[in-house]
Each structure stands twice: as structure tokens, then as C-alpha cells.
């Protein structure tokens, strides 16, 4: 007999309780600086075929309701470019539409060609991305970068496409959303060669070495480290090491951005609150960010200088202010 598939918790468990250390959501609004809404909704409909939410808008309005999700940065990184981007972006142009369709949150997006899609990058893809850059809700170019863990595209091609997109983003003065994995030397060389020191850079879902983070933070004063729920995983030590490094240097606010990378990597400490849930939630979403913030605070306090303490609310405020600095959202 084959192994029994793990059961998926009931859909109602996606509707989270308030985080216990966040009594007032109005004073600690959430900015999720990296989420994949189409993938999240697709995952939701796959896991809950009879699910109550028929559209992305329904899902966002109901699942994020009363959690103080103030802004999200949606990420498109496919080649060819996903055509649905315009429908979602246009739906957030007016304040009335943002209230009726999005439940009042601010919808923004970035676009680029993912490192795994580098071999598919061509003039037509680039033209579509440049068209998106002109949209009023577009706040950056990305995610782009190098990934030597999977090597889904040849490394030389990854580098070529990375440089090409960096040059265009710099020319347009668009903030950069960067993915890098097991490619520290080449990523550092290319970024330092092609990006001005004062450019705004978001190293998304950081899992590389604390030494590399320190070098990049020192060289680029407007660079931020993206923290997802993966910081809570026992298999990942690097991200916590970066937070300890920042706290020990008395960096306040922390130079981090809070993100989900939804639908991936729900924070593992959420089950300290969801004690009655059997199994693991099949996707993450923006209302989970307070649990990531709680974990960051606990790690920062391990090395914090005298008189400097973090809690979930302070980390959320740091993340919200940094989102404004990074993406103007």
C-alpha cells in the first residue's frame, strides 16, 4: 500500500485569529512586499475545489479582512509575461475600485523575468515588461537574478538576462527585486558593476550567508533584506544569523522587508497559535506576516544592545516604514 496523503486542514483555518502580540492592527499595518497572488489563488482553488472564494478579489477581501493588510506588492516573473497582470493592475487604479474589489488595501506590482525563465527571455518578453513598467501601479523590476541551486537555465544565460534587465531598470530608475541562491560571487559582481550604489534593492527571501548580506548592506545604503516565513524553519540558519548581525550592530530600524512569497513557506510558528489545526496549511498569505515578525523579534533580542528590544509590533512597524522607503508604497 502507498503512503496515505496528509490531510489538508479545513478551509476555515485560512481565516486566522489575530496574532496574540498585536492587539491593535491599526497601529501596526502590514505591507507584504513580495507575494504571488495568481499562484496563491490557483493553489487555493486546487486544494479547496469547493472553496467559497470564486475570484482573487473575493479571496483577498475575506482572508485578509480585519488583519490590517495595508499594502501588497504582487510579483510577475514569468516568460512569456502573464497577461492577467493588466486586469489586476487596472482594478486598483481608482480608490473606489480598491475599496470595492480589494477591501481597501493598496495593490501594487513588480515585473521581471525569473532566473528560471532566462532561456525564454527575448525581445517580445522585454517589450511586454517595458509596457508594464509604465503602469501607475508598477513599483519595481523583478524578481530577477541568479539561481545556481536548480540551474533551470544555463548560468551564462542567467547572467546575460540578469544584466540586461538590470540595465533597463536602472535607466528607468525602477527599484529592484532580486533573487539570488548559491550565486553570491556572481550576484555581487554583477550588482556592483551595473547598479549605482544609491539604487533601491530588495534581496528577496534571503537565505544566503550573513557575510554576503553584510557586504551588500555596506555597499548599497538603500538595500533591504527580505524576510519570509522560511526564517522560522529549523533547516535555515542563515536568515536568523543576518538578523542577529543587524541587532548586534544596533541597527534600528532593522534593514528588512517583510514578505510571504505566497503561496510558499507559511511560518512554522503559526501552529503555536493554531493549536487545533491537524496537518499543515497548504498555502501562505499576507495575514501570516505577524508570526514572521514575532520570530524576527525573538531572534533580534538574542544579540540586541542594552536598551534596545524588539517585539512583533516594532518589527511590523520597521517593515512597514521600509516598504515605503523601498517601493514608495
Offer a concise description of the structure.
This protein is α/β, with parallel strands linked by helices.
List the helices and strands and how they pair.
Layout (H helix, E strand, L loop, with lengths): L29 E6 L1 H11 L8 H8 L5 E8 L8 H6 L4 H8 L3 E6 L11 H11 L4 E10 L7 H18 L3 E6 L2 H11 L6 E3 L6 H10 L3 E5 L10 H11 L7 E3 L30 H12 L11 H16 L2
Parallel strand pairs: 1-2, 2-3, 3-4, 4-5, 5-6, 6-7, 7-8
Helix pairs in contact: 6-7, 8-9, 10-11
Descriptive key words:
globular; 329 residues; 11 helices; 37% helix
- Unreliable spans: none
Distance between the termini: 52 Å
Structural class: alpha/beta
Number of E-state strands? 8
Compute the gyration radius: what is it?
19 Å
Strand content: 5-15%
Overall average residue pLDDT:
95
- Helix fraction by DSSP (H/I, runs of at least 4): 25-40%
What kind of sheet is the major sheet?
8 strands, parallel
Give me the number of helical elements.
11
Strand order of the largest sheet: 1-2-3-4-5-6-7-8
Encode the helix/strand succession as letters.
EHHEHHEHEHEHEHEHEHH
Principal-axis shape: globular
Description:
The chain has 329 residues and is α/β, with parallel strands linked by helices. Helices cover 37% and strands 14% of the residues. The protein has helices spanning 37-47, 56-63, 85-90, 95-102, 123-133, 155-172, 184-194, 210-219, 238-248, 289-300, 312-327; strands at 30-35, 69-76, 106-111, 138-147, 176-181, 201-203, 223-227, 256-258. It has an 8-stranded parallel sheet. α7 links the parallel β5 (176-181) and β6 (201-203). α6 runs parallel beside α7 and α10 (289-300) packs across α11. 47% of the residues are buried.
Amino acid at each position: 500500500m502507498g503512503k496515505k496523503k496528509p490531510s489538508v486542514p479545513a478551509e476555515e483555518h485560512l481565516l486566522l485569529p489575530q496574532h496574540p502580540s498585536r492587539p491593535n492592527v491599526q497601529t501596526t499595518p502590514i505591507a507584504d512586499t513580495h507575494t504571488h497572488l495568481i499562484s496563491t489563488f490557483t493553489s487555493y482553488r486546487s486544494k479547496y475545489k469547493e472553496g467559497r472564494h470564486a475570484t482573487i478579489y473575493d479571496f483577498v477581501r475575506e482572508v485578509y479582512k480585519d488583519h490590517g493588510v495595508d499594502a501588497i506588492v504582487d510579483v510577475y516573473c514569468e516568460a512569456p509575461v502573464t497577461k492577467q497582470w493588466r486586469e489586476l493592475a487596472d482594478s486598483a487604479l481608482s480608490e473606489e475600485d480598491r475599496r470595492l474589489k480589494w477591501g481597501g488595501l493598496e495593490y501594487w506590482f513588480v515585473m521581471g523575468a525569473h532566473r528560471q525563465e532566462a532561456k525564454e527571455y527575448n525581445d517580445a518578453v522585454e517589450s511586454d515588461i517595458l509596457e508594464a513598467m509604465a503602469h501607475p501601479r508598477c513599483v519595481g523590476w523583478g524578481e530577477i537574478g541568479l539561481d545556481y541551486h536548480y540551474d533551470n537555465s544555463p548560468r551564462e544565460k542567467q547572467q546575460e538576462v540578469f544584466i540586461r534587465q538590470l540595465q533597463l531598470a536602472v535607466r528607468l530608475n525602477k527599484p529592484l527585486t532580486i533573487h539570488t541562491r548559491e550565486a553570491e560571487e556572481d550576484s555581487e559582481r554583477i550588482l556592483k558593476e551595473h547598479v549605482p550604489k544609491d539604487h533601491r534593492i530588495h534581496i528577496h527571501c534571503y537565505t544566503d550567508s550573513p557575510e554576503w548580506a553584510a557586504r551588500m548592506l555596506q555597499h548599497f545604503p538603500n538595500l533591504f533584506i527580505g524576510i519570509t516565513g522560511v526564517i522560522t524553519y529549523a533547516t535555515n540558519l542563515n536568515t536568523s544569523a543576518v538578523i542577529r548581525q543587524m541587532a548586534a550592530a544596533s541597527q534600528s530600524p532593522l534593514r528588512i522587508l517583510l514578505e510571504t512569497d505566497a503561496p510558499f513557506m507559511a511560518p512554522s510558528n503559526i501552529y503555536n497559535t493554531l493549536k487545533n489545526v491537524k496537518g499543515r496549511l497548504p498555502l501562505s498569505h499576507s495575514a501570516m506576516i505577524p508570526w514572521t515578525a514575532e520570530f524576527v523579534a525573538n531572534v533580534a533580542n538574542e544579540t540586541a544592545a542594552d536598551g534596545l528590544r524588539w517585539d512583533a509590533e516594532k518589527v511590523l512597524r520597521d517593515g512597514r516604514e521600509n516598504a515605503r522607503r523601498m517601493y514608495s508604497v
